[in-house]
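<instruction>
Derive structure tokens from the sequence
<entry> Chain with its tokenised backbone below:
===
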Amino acid sequence: MTSESVSRAFPALESDLDRVREIVGMADVPNRSELAPLTRQPAGHRHLIRPTLALLSYYVLAGPERAADIRAVEAAAAVELLHMASLYHDDVIDDARRRRGRPSVNTVWGARLAVLAGDLLFTSASRILSELGRRESLVVAETARRICSGMIAETADRFLLSRTEADYLEVTGAKTAELLSLACWLGAMQAGRGPEAEEDLARLGWHLGMAYQVRDDILDLTATTGELGKPANSDIVEGVYTLPVIRALGREPSLARLLRRGLTTADAERARQLVLSCGAVEEARQVAETHVETALRRLDGLGDPRSREGLAGYVRSITGSGAKAAPAVTSPAPASARPGVPAGRHEQVQERLDAWLLDTGLATTPEEARHPRWNAMALTAARFWPGADAEQAETLARWMLVIAVVDDLFDEPGLTDPGEIVRLRHRLTLLVRGLGDTPPAGGAVATAMAQAWERVRLIQPPSWRARALGHLEEWLEAAEREACHRLSGFVPSLRDQFALRLGSSGAPVFLDTFEITYGGELEPEVRDHPLVRRLLNVGAAAALAENDLMTLDEDEAVGAPYNLVRVLRHETGCTRQEAIDEVTRQVEDGFAQVDAILAAAPAILRPADGGAAAETGMGLLRLSRERLPGWRALHDIDRYNRSSAGSETYLARLRRELLDEYAEHAECAKDAAYAETGAAR
């Protein structure tokens, strides 16, 4: 945005900035419309400071009356593309989660895509510059070299208490001032008024950049997180000691004792107060003001008075000491923070489930039917599918209960023979394969599985049914592998842990179950959208890690091989508490990323045509935000409690029954093969 006075001085500015936006918007992945938002996400509030400086520098020399020449517009667009590329890369390097109040690109899309998108933006700028000419390309190449050198020097100097003011000013000149200088220089070059005028405007941009960075460093100490759109006082915490801190170190000996890696929040605040109280901030403001005055002196003799005053007004507007930081964009409350259990008829559904458990034989007594793992399934279904009527909730609860039984069978402590694990998986696989044809015959598990599936298949399309059965078979193979790993004492590497944990957790089965509550099947273009896949990947990692924390004691007791805390301790040799702290941090960070993706995704998934896929995508996001609290509450179901009825668990009984069925099936198969062989003879 530009001020009214600047717009009056340069009447074509807003329309020329629209031309810049159009060129910038062309930097995307060809023929992949779903990836277009990746390179078009707002960088901050997109005030387009650098393109505006390029255009104003051009107007000052070429005249403010007419629209800018296409070369000037392209130069301005190239500068913006370079700036965006640098932000993408900086946020990945810093692991920054927000950019001017919005989730950063790496938070929403992931670090890999953010880096590659930054590369794409940089090469798009390079292509434009090569078309402008060899001189422009060389100027940009030299500027990029200085910027990278400055970033390297700043990174190398992190937490360095001996960092000098000269070091700070040199780095600031390279990493920030050079890009603003480049903007003015490229704009001036397109006016063709000679190297002296170009140099004056380039120096104006450099001093402006110095003032801009010093002011930004001051705001990090004086503004709030809401005003900045990112964590306040982050420079001290990250070990980037800026001009106010360097000056304060010279007069506050106690400050040096506070500054270190791993600074606590309380110590960081004490350090900030020391800097604020010693007068260093006011001195830094004077340094910034001196650079502004030096920048404005470079305008003497350039263009006409109206143009000079217009550019001077713009410089003051973006460096004014009274200006406030751009207001942060307020996102909806994080989904994970919204409490409440959806109302439903879960008591009525639970009564039906209890009767069904006895009817199928999963439970043999009313007391056994009230096993905590089963007795919470109706409430779990209500959380998982808020708004479902009793019939829908019972359908979902039956299916989830069958999945829970199968999951528990492989974790049952009595399962101590690897051969039994293989035979158990084989029998369950036969049951799953029979669901696609005729209902499988057998005992309690076979009966319950067939009856639960029959209700599901009536409401789900054939393509979903085929995919869901395939996922069930894959899950059984992963569950068999985990159970064998548990018996052998195997603990995977950190590199392999998530893939193994994801497989044995039945994540695809969980997503298939979600589609039941969605009311059908997600369109492939929605299910396969890179942002949806990232949401699922980040969400699964956070949820599984959270589950590992909640079941750690029990997992340690039974030797669960894939628990992340156990894997961390095994690979790194850290203490139990250190591993718990690290996994806790990962959980918090993971769900924060989920919230950020859900907040940013509507603008990304909503295409201009507003087609059916867009409606599906928006519906998926809405359901995800609504149901995340309920999904996280699934951990409340106690999988480790056993039935109080009798000395044996229901799992041991069901396991023996399934293995007997397997033996009978194998014997029948042997008899059939013998008979077939005899007939052939």
In short: Confidence is low (pLDDT under 50) at residues 321-344, 640-648, 671-681.
